[in-house]
Model the fold of this input.
Amino acid sequence: MSQATSVRKPVRLAPVQGKGAVLAILTVGHGATHWYNQGFQIIVAVIKEQFGLSATAADALVSARALTGAVVNIPAGILTDTLRSRWNLLLALSLGWMGFASVLVGLAPTYVLVLITVALLGIGATTWHMPAITALSERFPDRRGFALATHGVGGNAGDAIGPLAIGALLVLFAWRDVLFLTAIVPIVLAIALYFLLRGLSGPVDATRKDAGLLTYIANLKSIFRNRALLLLALTAGIRSMSMAALTPHLTFYMKEDLRLSTTIVGLYLALMTALGVFSSPVLGVLSDRLGRKPVLLAGHLALAALSLALPFVAPGWQLAAVLAAMGLFLYSLQAIVVAAAMDMAGEKAGATTVGLMFTGNRLAAAISPIIAGLIVDATHANTSAFYFSAATMFLSSLLLAVIPLRRGSQTTA
Done:
């Protein structure tokens, strides 16, 4: 008579190769989810000009996408925990939805309908992170910072390629046609990824048939008892406020105040994220070896200082140098923040933790552009948003300084 010796099934890897291949495929897919992150800012600037929008109304387009992302985070986390054997389907649907929603935005004839369809666009990128980050965190428990930072490289690459492509296409096509054309990329990748990652799943508790909502609620309760993790989520949210205020108004500033073409704006935005392709894995490895806090603190303080410098640099090499320096940290730190949260939460609450972190981030990113837009409309200066961004990033640094973060089994004060 056979007797079960373990309640946990082994982690099943996709039939492609192994965890290295899974990391590579997820990194490419992550790049597709970030295709619109920076490039869409240029489209928003064009929509602002075409519809004659105020800064607040234009910022509402950015906020709508972030708000929808915040709303779907919890359901996405539940689905990730419930459908652990169908992560390839969830990931494919995430990419496919982005392409579909992009077409809807292009078809919307009025500002109100554009606002609604842009909100739908926020669903795709959000639902990607739960299964992708959880899968990588479980496969690289001792090199979590490296794995999540490498995954972040895909996002940085998408952030860099997106504005270059969209800025160039806007010279040849109307913004609606650009959305139709760029929708092809995530749809094709969605189909490919579904087949490449067949069998991708996480550990399954063989004794629990009702895993899913109940497990998610139990994990959520344990997380809300972890004060350090909640404080880290708050810190991450304030950091997201800084980023969400900076990017759209940097685009408006370059297009309206500096009178730069969409192609040049795209080049600058690409430069702001391109160096993150190289810095992300380096910062990830450093955070594994030195601890999360030193890397995060250095990056936060650098971004606060660079945001303050933006209004005082001239277009050309000075602006390029500041944006390139920002690119070292702007999006690369997100993976380290998530790695720090996963260190605290452990494997069982992985998807729940990712859901909590991204819910806070998206809510903050939904509120911040509206605040920045109101400040800009009141002061009639796009540069006001840079000061707001610097202040919130500095506040995030102060909170980060008092959080006890872990490096593996070690604690960093």
In short: The first strand starts at residue 405 and ends at 407. The two ends are 52 Å apart (CA to CA).
